[in-house]
What we know:
The chain has helices at residues 34-46, 78-86, 105-118, 133-136, 147-165, 209-218, 229-243, 267-281, 284-295, 329-343, 347-354, 364-376, 395-400, 402-407, 420-423, and strands spanning 9-14, 51-54, 62-63, 66-67, 93-99, 123-128, 177-180, 185-188, 201-204, 221-224, 254-259, 261-263, 320-321, 360-362, 382-385. It is an alpha/beta fold. It has an eight-stranded parallel beta barrel, surrounded by four helices. A three-stranded antiparallel beta sheet has the order 4-3-13. A two-stranded antiparallel sheet has the order 7-8. The structure holds flavin mononucleotide. Pfam families: Bac_luciferase (PF00296). Keywords: Flavoprotein, FMN, Monooxygenase, Oxidoreductase. FMN binds at residues 97, 151, 208.
Amino acid sequence: MTALHRELHLAAHFPGVNNTTVWADERSGSQIDFTSFEHLARTAERGLFDFFFLAEGLRLREHKGRVHDLDVVGRPESITVLNALAAVTDRLGLAATVSATFNEPYELARRLASLDHLSGGRAGWNVVTTSDAFTGENFRRGGYLDRADRYRRAEEFLHAARKLWDSWTPDGAARPVEHTGAHFTIEGEFTVPRSPQGHPVVIQAGDSAEGRDFAAASADVIFSRHGTLEAGRAFYADVKARLAAHGRHPDDLKIMPGVTFVLGDTDAEARERAAEIRRQQISPQNAILALERIWGRDLSSYDPDGPLPEIDPEPDSTLAQGRVRMDDPLEIAARWRALSKAKGLSIRQTVIETTGRQSFVGTPRTVAEELLRFVDLRAADGFILVPHITPGGLDEFVDRVVPLLQERGAFRTEYSGRTLRSHLGLAEPIWKG
Ligand SMILES: Cc1cc2nc3c(=O)[nH]c(=O)nc-3n(C[C@H](O)[C@H](O)[C@H](O)COP(=O)(O)O)c2cc1C
């Protein structure tokens, strides 16, 4: 049988601390209890997903000098959680976001190789560079590294980690490692024998030219924020074109945007549910906070049901700390004003319309067809799904959408391999001892 569709990869994002999750929903559980992690991981494995994914924040976010506690706050350390999940799952990949700016390669390589051993070859590492000095204050004097230095450090970090992972021969002998670079010096043997995957799968989530080049040179998967068809295709073409310069094939790097979904028995019902979820995600209070984050100013006197502020954003504000800032605030303000004017939208309606819109909305069939279309049109190789209910928000997707993807021949009906690398269709790393 000739396949009608390209193969699709799926991963499950445990939502962590944000307002994508509707924490006020009575079905929402704890973001800390092991039972929550276990539920989502078991569901993802039941759905034959490639991997389970955890984000990371190294400092509680602050807003106007106080801990931002409108949503939930606090979460356990990711690799520890994944080690526990390794014991209650069998095939599911287990990926943790861990900063290359605030860790040391020898120690992190040990922890990742250990997870790879304990899970039988299912470890993944999302290498982030962590953009803000605020987060850095707990880790290094002065907190900061500029973007170029962060990526230079990440490159050297990954190079050193791979040297450590390759330092044991496949037949079990430890050989000495020597590494001297601008950021790290390592000398001596590595403590952990070669793990089942050789190298845990490397994921990258950064968007700058430096970030894209880093991914093209070194990553196996990109977690991207380009979840629309148009932006997804542009990002996909840009990143895949960068691979050849590093002697790599386009299939060596899988692009997986983070996306949300809302299902219904009819498309209209799904759209209604999606609109209701958006209103829950963006309460009047959350709308003002979202605006303050962009504007960098105290806007508490503004009415969420009134018009956008006339005053311009303060570009270098530190009002909101610990969030990844993606775009220029002046440019966002101009876009929001134009939209609000064109459609007659209030502050809250503008925030609902512009931030975190649901990516795939409709009946299970509509959503399945759309996912396949995005993959066929090369806007993605797959998706990291972000449910809006923790931990049960993936259940319906696995029960109702996965069978349709399987029916169309685009998704596995059983795991064929044991390792995350094999689920992703990636080659085993060549041992460079
Ligand atoms: C989709 C996506 C998810 C990210 N998730 C995290 C995260 O969980 N923890 C973190 O510290 N940084 C995260 N980052 C931020 C990256 O680490 C990086 O610091 C930031 O994007 C700046 O890098 P850039 O200049 O290459 O974009 C994420 C970025 C993107 C695009």
